[in-house]
Specification:
8-stranded antiparallel beta sheet, alpha+beta
Length: about 200
């Protein structure tokens, strides 16, 4: 009984905290220009971008150094009890990911900034998606055990729903997480100089 009360209390607390905030909107400053001394420093900055993504539990997908692109696989976002993870950056996003199935994926680009070969622009984009699944029809309590299977009919009259009927809705960019990841890249790349103008 005490465990149930604790779960209900934590759920209510997360909902209250989240209700006091609005979702973070994308910001314009998720890019930063670095000044690198040589190709070695540029390579270290490239490695720092990958290390930051890995440390925040993003699984790397495409790592294309000539194109200056790093992408990650979509990863289900942190829930309130997963204290060892850090892939959401606001109480609202934490509550949202705890109450529904949400995933994020990151896209980092590293490209020359202008004509100076020693100036490099790093840009971070994090996109958010929510899982949408058609309502399953329950005829008795035993069918709850089949909810994640492929045997239940749909509420809208479908004979049988499968995983193919589920889809992801693009919710846009996560500006708070973009800023957080870029700040970590800046901190890890402290051996290079930040350019005075982005």
């Amino acid at each position: 009984m005490n465990q149930t009360r604790a779960i209900v209390f934590v759920g209510a607390l997360v909902s209250i905290i989240a209700g006091c905030q609005e979702p973070a909107t994308p910001v314009d400053y998720t890019t930063q220009v670095f000044t690198v001394a040589d190709a070695e420093q540029s390579g270290l900055l490239w490695e720092a971008c990958q290390d930051v993504l890995r440390r925040h539990r993003f699984a790397l997908d495409r790592v294309d150094r000539p194109a200056g692109v790093i992408t990650t696989f979509p990863t289900t976002s942190q829930q309130f009890f997963e204290f060892w993870r850090r892939d959401v950056n606001t109480a609202y996003d934490l509550a949202d990911a705890s109450l529904s199935t949400v995933r994020r994926h990151a896209h980092v680009t590293m490209a020359p900034a202008g004509d100076d070969p020693n100036r490099v622009r790093v840009a971070v984009v994090v996109r958010v998606e929510r899982l949408s699944a058609p309502e399953r029809q329950f005829n008795n309590s035993a069918t709850v055990l089949q909810y994640f299977g492929d045997e239940l009919p749909g509420e809208a009259g479908q004979q049988r729903l499968t995983r193919a009927d589920d889809y992801w809705i693009d919710l846009g960019r996560d500006g708070a997480m973009e800023r957080y990841l870029l700040d970590r890249i800046i901190r890890d790349g402290s051996y290079v100089e930040l350019a005075s103008t982005p």
